[in-house]
């Protein structure tokens, strides 16, 4: 990335990554990426398939730890705290930095239990009343409450795809995260369900730092205030979403957003 584009464009970042490289065995999938994740804005990661978006996203809550061949180098901090330090409790970290995946993956449990599970294992509720409150609040924030309030004991897997994705967002919200990572959260959804998720991202902005990976340029332009363009494991360009889409500095960025390659 050219020196003129600072990864530290944000005065008060929620997360900072410096000189991060990721390997799968001998293969380098992410090459020396430095970037700040803004606290109050939505950051979109874009770039052609295989460029390393998911790999880099997973470094932000150590999901790569679950892939035996993966190795992460560099420095990643959450509010100044090194998330790769041996003192970091990874279970705690993944509650603080929640994740929503491409394919909705509710637990084979009731709608209620999907949301209550995290608060229970993290000891966030004193009793049933408090747990009920957390479940209701999380489902409301995820824009799902009205649709499910009368069927909380139904299985989460019985919901529609879009509802399942909002349930997964409610599940992430229930443990009171600081950051939410979303890896192509709408790619399995129809346009109406997609619009609901995008609306939800707008509503959640400011309460949580949000990072979203998307292949949909219109979506990146609609939901994010910052955009990072990845190509072949490199962070090519990072800046205000409006600048990236209207006035990209790099030819590679311009070619990608105008659909020359993908
Ligand atoms: N578990 C893994 N083991 C080995 N290599 C992997 C693994 N996951 C990803 N890779 C490789 O790392 C590179 C980056 O993959 P990644 O999934 O991060 O890309 P991506 O930008 O998210 O792509 P897509 O848009 O298709 O989801 C690719 O070359 C991919 O083959
Ligand atoms: Mg991916």
UniProtKB/TrEMBL annotation:
Gene3D superfamilies associated with the record: P-loop containing nucleotide triphosphate hydrolases (3.40.50.300)
Gene Ontology biological process terms, A to Z: phosphate ion transmembrane transport
Gene Ontology CC terms: membrane
Domain ABC transporter: 15-257
PROSITE patterns in the record: ABC_TRANSPORTER_1 (PS00211), ABC_TRANSPORTER_2 (PS50893)
Superkingdom of origin organism: Bacteria
InterPro entries for the chain: AAA+_ATPase, ABC_transporter-like_ATP-bd, ABC_transporter-like_CS, P-loop_NTPase, PstB-like
Pfam families on file: ABC_tran (PF00005)
Keyword terms, alphabetized: ATP-binding, Nucleotide-binding, Phosphate transport, Transport
Annotated GO MF terms: ATP binding; ATP hydrolysis activity; phosphate transmembrane transporter activity
Database matches in PANTHER family: ABC TRANSPORTER I FAMILY MEMBER 17
Entry protein name: Phosphate ABC transporter ATP-binding protein
Organism expressing this protein natively: Flavisphingopyxis soli
């Amino acid at each position: 990335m050219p020196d003129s584009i600072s990864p530290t464009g944000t005065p008060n970042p929620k997360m900072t990554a410096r000189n991060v490289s990721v390997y799968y065995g001998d293969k380098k999938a992410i090459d020396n990426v430095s970037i700040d994740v803004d606290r109050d804005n939505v950051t979109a990661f874009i770039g052609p398939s295989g460029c390393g978006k998911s790999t880099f996203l997973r470094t932000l809550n150590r999901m790569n730890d679950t892939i035996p061949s993966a190795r992460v180098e560099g420095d990643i901090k959450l509010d100044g705290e090194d998330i790769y330090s041996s003192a970091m409790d990874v279970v705690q970290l993944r509650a603080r930095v929640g994740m929503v995946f491409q394919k909705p993956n509710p637990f084979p449990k009731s709608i209620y239990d999907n949301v209550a599970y995290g608060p229970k294992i993290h000891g966030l509720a004193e009793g049933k009343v408090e747990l009920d409150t957390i479940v209701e609040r999380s489902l409301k924030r995820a824009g799902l409450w009205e649709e499910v309030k009368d069927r909380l004991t139904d299985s989460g897997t019985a919901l529609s795809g879009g509802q399942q994705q909002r349930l997964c967002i409610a599940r992430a919200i229930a443990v009171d995260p600081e950051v939410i990572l979303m890896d192509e959260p709408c790619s399995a959804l129809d346009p109406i369900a997609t619009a609901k998720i995008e609306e939800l991202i707008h509503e959640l902005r400011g309460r949580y730092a949000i990072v979203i990976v998307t292949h949909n340029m219109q979506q990146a332009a609609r939901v994010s205030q910052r955009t990072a363009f990845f190509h072949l494991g490199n962070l090519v360009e990072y800046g205000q979403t409006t600048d990236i889409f209207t006035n990209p500095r790099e030819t590679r960025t311009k070619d990608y957003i105008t659909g020359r390659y993908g």
